[in-house]
Every structure is written in structure tokens, then in C-alpha cells.
């Protein structure tokens, strides 16, 4: 990595744009004009050094089960430190939270065991930024269907109905190019995002406050959740189910951005978090040292 101009601080938060100049895309430079280039892409300072030492915005990742390491690695690729959260009191030390994918029933049992639900609900109620991916989306939904007998506890806060395992069992997991106009308009890059759906849920209904960020076409009888007679009648017809939403400071995706090399959902969330942070603080916690002239290696496999 060679800096195009000298950077006077060793503590800056950077974002990596794999498209770099090719798509004329650059994550917004907020507090410094320092830009360094690497390969075909580009590092941009998204949050400068001001306020790094005090009132830092720290991203928590619920680390009970599931893909929390992958989220932490994705944050690290952006130069941001993710902190594992396993206990209620640890939520007091973070300003935003990612709830990873995994298995929501198991995660709910572990959250109950650690008495995390009251603190998690309080966190959401306070309007702190929270992003749920896959099982994390189920956790955040006000209503979930397709749950195991006896149901499972949810955090709630996201005004939607989510259907667990909507696309089928584990072997029906799939990848799909999703149209993501809102993401592309704020984060740049292509108009599509490669969604990795692993025994994924889908959102069937949303309230008026919820902004739909991505949907996915399915046969109409599936979207309607209707009977086998309807299935015969509606063969060939398509409807859409919702797979990414935002409601205020809650972000939810039915798929797994942390398993791809495309970090735009992470930067989108970090900006949401930083917007809130700016009221109390001005920056995210950096883990990259600009003077090292090295990109932090990816410790975990990701889809390219
Ligand atoms: N099917 C899982 C559940 O219901 C979610 C899968 C995932 O997070 N990839 O919890």
C-alpha cells in the first residue's frame, strides 16, 4: 500500500473499496483527505482520528453461536475492531451490535441462559444501531413463524413477520445476485450484491416504518404461504419475498454478507452506527496501523 499523500496520524479508520477507481467509487471521506491506494482498489478514511481516545464507538458482535468470527473478520478488513459480546453487562461497552447468523433456537437458548434478553431488548429500545443477519434477523423480528414447538424468545423491535427456513432445509441453501439500489447508492459499487442464503428466513410482511432494501423472487404460492391447491393454480407466477430491511437504526439481512468479500453492508451499518456515534462520539475504533503499509490478512475463508 502506498499512500498518495502523507498521513499525519497512525490512528485512522479505513474502508476498502474493491472497485477503487474502476467504478469511480469511494467511501465518503469524512474527516481527512488522506487516501492510500492498494492494487486496483482504494482505501479511504471514513472516520478520522478525532475523538479516537475517548467516547469511542465500539461495534459489538453477539458471540453466542454462529458466524460471529466472520463478522469480526469482516470488520477487521475494514480496519474496525469488533468486540465479542456474551454477557449483558458487555452491552454497556458497545455502541452498536451485530447479531450473526447461526441457529436462532440455539442462540435463543444460550441468550436465555446468559440472561441476555432484557439487556438486548433495552439496547434496541434505546435506538442503538443493531444489525441482524439471518438468525439475527429472526431474533430482531416482532413476529416469527415456522418456529419449533413452544416457539423461541425473540428480541423484537423490527416491525415484520419473518418465516424461518423459508427456502427449505440446509441442502436448499443457495447464492443469488440481489438487486440492491439503496446499498449501491450509498456505498457505491455494483447494483447487485451476492447473497449467500443458508437455510435462510424470509420476511413476509413489514410495517409502514420499514424500508425494504432487497427482495427476492419466489413462486407466488410460496410467498403467500398458501395451500397445495393454490400451488397448482399459481404455477409459473412469481412474487417477491423481502430479504433486507432497515427500520430506523435496525438493519436486517436474511443472507450472510460476512461470508463474502463485498463489505458494503458492513460499511452501510458502520455509517448508521457512526451517525448515532457522532452525537456522543466521532469515530470508530481503528485496528489498522497506517504505518505498517500492509493490508490485514483475512484469517477466515470468504467467497470472492
Ligand atoms: N435457519 C436458521 C434459524 O432458523 C437460520 C440460518 C442462518 O442463520 N443461516 O435459526
From TrEMBL:
Superkingdom is Eukaryota
Q: List cellular component terms (GO).
A: cytosol; glutaminase complex
The record ties this protein, via InterPro entries, to: Class_I_gatase-like (IPR029062), PdxT/SNO (IPR002161), PdxT/SNO_CS (IPR021196)
Enumerate the UniProt keywords alphabetically: Glutamine amidotransferase, Hydrolase, Lyase
GO BP terms, alphabetized: pyridoxal phosphate biosynthetic process; pyridoxine metabolic process
GO molecular function list: glutaminase activity; lyase activity
Q: Which family does it belong to?
A: Belongs to the glutaminase PdxT/SNO family.
**PANTHER family the UniProt entry points to:** PYRIDOXAL 5'-PHOSPHATE SYNTHASE SUBUNIT SNO, PYRIDOXAL 5'-PHOSPHATE SYNTHASE SUBUNIT SNO1-RELATED
- HAMAP family from the UniProt entry: PdxT (MF_01615)
In its UniProt entry, what is this protein called?
glutaminase
Source organism (scientific name): Quillaja saponaria (Soap bark tree)
Q: What lineage is this protein's organism placed in?
A: Eukaryota, Viridiplantae, Streptophyta, Embryophyta, Tracheophyta
